[in-house]
Amino acid sequence: MSEASKLLDELNDRSREVFRKVVEGYLFSGEPVGSRTLTRTLDEKVSAATIRNVMQDLEFLGLLDSPHISAGRVPTQLGLRMFVDGLLEVRDLDQEDREKIDATVTSNSQDVGQILDRVGSALSGVTQGASLVLTPKHEAAIKHIEFVPIGGDQALVVLVFDDGHVENRLFTPPPGQTPSSMREAANFLNALVEGKTLSELRRTMKEEIARKRQELDSLAATLVDQGLAAWDTEGDMPERLIVRGRSNLLAEDAHAEELDRIKELFDDLERKRDIAEFLELTEQGDGVRIFIGSENKLFSLSGSSLVVSPYMNADRKIIGAVGVIGPTRLNYGRIVPIVDYTAQLVGKLLGDRNQG
Question: For a Cys staple, 196 with which of 175, 177, 201, 269, CB 3.0–4.6 Å?
Answer without folding.
Answer: 201
